[in-house]
Write a structure and sequence with these properties.
The complex is a heterodimer of chains A (121) and B (120).
Chain A: H1 7-27, H2 36-52, H3 58-72, H4 76-87, H5 91-120
Helix pairs in contact in A: 1-2, 1-3, 2-3, 2-5, 4-5
Chain B: H1 5-29, H2 31-51, H3 58-72, H4 75-89, H5 92-118
Helix pairs in contact in B: 1-2, 1-3, 2-3, 2-4, 2-5, 4-5
Classes of the chains: A mainly alpha (121), B mainly alpha (120).
Chain lengths: 121, 120
């Protein structure tokens, strides 16, 4: 608990979160019939979380998972974009966006864990 | 929104603040409860801000919408929690995940509507 709330840990979580958010800003520009950019950001961030969970260093894992991946992924923009699809009557796309986000992000966490276990341990 | 150096700086600042607040909440409120809270609150915050047309300015959007609300909420945290939950409770966890994503959309939409009615 003390290590988690240490000033350096907090600083690195904030910096990593800022960096993740800026990467998301660029990735979010990819849009088509679906908000692909945010979907990609969420899936990549989920892979990073799974990978970081296997880190031998607990603090590095926390900084990467909570900071970088947390900043890169977003729930609020997913909710906004899905609501916009519903408001425009694009129900099938909204449903697809939701199912794809859920399925691909969860799979990415699992794959990240496998990759992390193979490469970091 | 055109991406300029100022937009990048503001997004970074907002994302850092949001991530820091989310991280602290996870320490003091517990992983699961804080995850539910930050995501529903963050979705509601973005809905409220998007409902107010007067706030729709590139700098404000970068700092508070893309940066703060985006950094405060986390989909990777939700996915991670679902994968962890699936190890103990099987596939049923993903039905809960689906309901939670639906609640997030509802939270955004209700807040957006309320903001549109309140802020004229």
């Amino acid at each position: 608990m003390e290590a988690l709330t240490g000033p350096l840990t907090l600083l690195f979580v904030a910096l990593a979160g800022g960096l993740g958010s800026v990467i998301r800003l660029f990735v979010s520009k990819f849009e088509g019939k679906l908000p692909w950019g945010i979907l990609i950001a969420n899936v990549v961030a989920s892979f990073v979380v799974g990978f970081a969970q296997q880190s031998p260093s607990f603090l590095v894992g926390i900084i990467v998972a909570s900071g970088l991946a947390g900043g890169l992924s977003t729930f609020s923009t997913y909710a906004a974009q899905t609501t916009n699809l519903i408001r425009r009557g694009r129900i099938a796309q909204a449903l697809f966006n939701t199912l794809a986000t859920l399925a691909l992000s969860s799979t990415a966490v699992w794959l990240g864990q496998l990759a992390g276990a193979a490469l970091l341990k | 929104m055109q991406i300029s150096a100022k937009i990048i700086r503001l997004t970074f600042l907002g994302g850092a603040l949001g991530s820091l607040l989310r991280f602290n909440m996870s320490i003091f409120l517990g992983e699961l409860f804080s995850l539910l809270l930050v995501n529903l609150l963050g979705a509601a915050l973005l809905g409220w801000l998007n409902g107010d047309k007067a706030l729709d300015k590139p700098e404000f959007n970068a700092m508070w919408k893309t940066g703060f609300a985006g950094g405060f909420t986390t989909m990777s945290g939700v996915a991670s929690m679902l994968v962890l939950g699936a190890q103990f409770n099987g596939w049923a966890v993903f039905a809960i995940g689906l309901v939670f994503l639906g609640l997030g959309v509802l939270s955004y939409w209700l807040s957006f509507q309320q903001s549109r009615k309140t802020v004229r």
